[in-house]
Amino acid sequence: MIFLIGDSTVKNGRGKGDGGQWGWGSFFQQFFDTTRISVENHALGGRSSRTFFTEDLWNKVLPGIRKGDYLFIQFGHNDGGPLNTGRARASLNGTGDESQVVIMERNGGPEEVFTFGHYLRIYIRQAKAVGAIPVVLSPTPGNRWTNGKMNRMTETYTKWAKEVARQEGVEFIDLNDRTADKCDAMGEEKGKQLFVDSVHTTYDGAIINGQSVIEGLQSLNGFSLNQYILK
């Protein structure tokens, strides 16, 4: 079994293409021999590495994960912004062990907020504890361009996700760079057509992100999941 956790770029809304917006996880099963392995997409729009955990979404996924299953982890798009006001979903920058106690606007109570890397480590370590195989992904690229080239997240969430994966000894796929390369190759005008807005993809954009994930997997020599990818 393959489990996916993440934000709206993995599963948008109910995963039915509302508003023409799709996450790549809605089509991920089409790349695999589904008579041998299946995909469960537990991503939820608007969630960050922090709120997927604090809203108990992870605690609903973890009990279903078994030894030998795969867990794909992709966060970052919603990890910025305010810590304790409004949607209050931000994590602290980086991968360190620092934390900050904030008073939450919504209920007046305290919450200890940790780094982006800290929350990724929770998912990785708890999945490994039951014998599952985590795979960390960078965020997908957004529909933002500079001089005809798509902007990357090389110094923020991509970098931090890669650092955590290396520290924890799990595989990492740079989905940000792989899809941005594809968009650069087709040009800004065509690349922008893969998006509904600054972040969310059309059907075609979601398929391209899925292809980038598969290409990332295929670049991992001897990775056990690859035996299930359709040729």
What name does the CATH topology carry?
Rossmann fold
Shape: globular
Q: What characterizes the major β-sheet?
A: 5 strands, parallel
CATH superfamily (homologous) name: SGNH hydrolase
Order of helices and strands: EEHHEEEHEEEHEHHH
Tell how many strands the DSSP assignment holds. Answer: 9
- Spatial order of the strands forming the largest sheet: 2-1-3-6-9
What amount of the residues lies in strands?
Answer: 15-25%
Corresponding CATH architecture: 3-Layer(aba) Sandwich
Question: How far from one another are the termini?
Answer: 19 Å
Query: How many domains, in number, for the residues?
Result: 1
**Number of distinct helices:** 7
Topology (SSEs and partners):
Layout: E1 2-6, E2 39-41, H1 51-54, H2 57-61, E3 70-74, E4 99-103, E5 110-114, H3 116-129, E6 133-137, E7 145-146, E8 149-150, H4 157-168, E9 171-173, H5 175-186, H6 188-192, H7 203-218
Parallel strand pairs: 1-2, 1-3, 3-6, 6-9
Antiparallel strand pairs: 4-5, 7-8
